[in-house]
Amino acid sequence: MKLKNLFILLSLSLAITGCANGNGLEEKADSKTGDLLVEEVSEEKPLVYASFFPIYNLTKQIGKDKVEVKSFANLTSESHGFEPSAKQMADLSEASLIFINGAGMEEWVDAVDSSIDIEIVDTSKDLDLIDASGQAHEDHEAHEGHEGHNHGAFDPHTWLDPINGKDQAKVIAEKLADLDPSNKDYYLANYEKIAGDLEEINQEFEEKFKTLTNKKFIVPHEAFAYLEKRYGLEQVPLTSLTSTGEADALALKQVADLALKEDINVIFYEKGGSDKLAKTLADEISGQTSELSTIEFLSEEELEKELSYQELVRENLKAIYDSLAE
After folding, report:
1. How far apart are CA 283 and CA 277, in angstroms?
2. Tens digits of per-residue pLDDT, 176-197?
3. What are phi and psi of 220, to 5 degrees?
């Protein structure tokens, strides 16, 4: 009889100490008084990676405190030419998945795909991409493999267009909802906030750019084709799609002549980069310089301010509009 009673008491004790109420709380009995205590149970967050700043920032805004988000590339460094170290590859292998921009932006994606068992989520897979030659490419699905991307078939700067960014954010939100279905509504609500911001920005500048007659703007490299397409603009690049090349004397003369002919007074240089070339050209045409961001990376100061992707997109569009409206 005593053994039976002892067994009942032990069973009740285990039931009390191990009972969770389904809301992240656990009930335990105080060892001295026997009173029932409620303690918060820490839930392990999904760990996901994002390839570089714009994808990282969108993922952070959507996942917030429900997801641990890490950036694969350094958030304060140029993304073109990034090659992950052995340690970065090892760290990545601990994650559930990695969000990438796609369209050939991440040149390291084949190495990750072949050496790490991780899901790679291409956020641009359903976008109407622009060929590197400058032509729109509607059949991205036919080139879904990474091989075409690595050979530079497409212009990868999709995120500079706010509507593309909105669509890429949706891919992120839906994947997080699949990964963590208990927080699906939370992720989708956060996405809707981002989508609203970007729709508002797009509508504002769609109307503003319609009022302009001169729609040509001089840029450090050919990264703004998606903005050209969205708003009927025309970029005049000093160098090609990658920002590693230097414009030669002939290219500078041709751009200077065009600027004088078209009454273009602002020469853009890349935010975070040197303004030397832009100043040389601006002096040639008696113009001025201004910075324009590719939003690939931020300064330490900008990271500390926690600037959002949406704020940076708006900042870019405002800079372009202001230069054309003068």
Report:
1. 10
2. 999 999 999 999 999 999 999 9
3. -65, -40
